[in-house]
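task queued by scheduler; priority normal; single chain, no ligands, no partner chains; default sampling; output format set to structure tokens
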Amino acid sequence: MAGNSQRRNRRTSNKKGATVGSGGQRRRGLEGKGPTPPASMRKGHVKNRIANAKAKAADRRRPAPRRGGPKGASEMVVGRNPVFEALRDGVPATTLYVQQFIDNDERVREALALAQARGNINLMEAPRPELDRMTGGLNHQGLVLQVPPYEYAHPEDLTAEAYDEGEDPLIVALDGVTDPRNLGAIIRSVSAFGGHGVVIPERRAAGMTAGAWKTSAGTAARTPVARVTNLTRALQDYKKAGITVVGLAAEGEHAVADLEALGGPVVVVVGSEGKGLSRLVGETCDFLVRIPMPGGAESLNAGVAAGVVLYEAARRRG
């Protein structure tokens, strides 16, 4: 009879396998979930939306990666004299690579002494083939200095620093200046005449290389440089903030010494020595000024021209 069979191992139920329980899920469901997170971390809460908005704004203000070339890439200074001069002039560096069994001449000893004196530069010994690989076969003479990526400022940081000091902003923007030595010389002039920074475009322009650092004679350490994707848009933003934009041009309507606007918040735009200001940048400027040159020279070096205007601005500010 069904259900009364005495045969061993006979299945008397239609269910297959063992009956499983909840696996502890019910027990875990009864456990507490810990303290309630703050409102700024609760999704959908108004304070969470405010915190997210602030984080996005902070991301937009972060400095752009340095240099033309691969973004965030380090730079290598190669050769005994260039390495010595970079260390002497305070160019930031992370590592000094020295070739194994190098001929220890005076320049090598001086470079090692400068690196050791700083205390924050790693000294690494490497075989010549490795240095050849690192420098792409350049004549490194057994010394290679690694310069870290430059951290560019945001254009708004320059004006904020000026206002924090109770001063009107004095900023120099460069349009098409491609020589790092000119950039370094302008940074030096900005520092000398109380300016608050330099703005450069990302493309077709000199970046903060070791050459620019050297020419700045150490002033790049205290004079911020901002880099922008669109110089015209950056100048328009400065104008909206109440800052006068003055461009240097041979055909300028005003002489530098006659422009009273240099005594207030101002951005001085310097173009390349050959082409001058680009069309869009020139149209964005509030004033175009010229530097009278009774000696008959057609133009001035970009670094010299910037120095002349910065001196006039500093004179007007007392």
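post-processing summary
- The first strand starts at residue 75 and ends at 78.
- Residues 178 and 206 are 4 Å apart (CA to CA).
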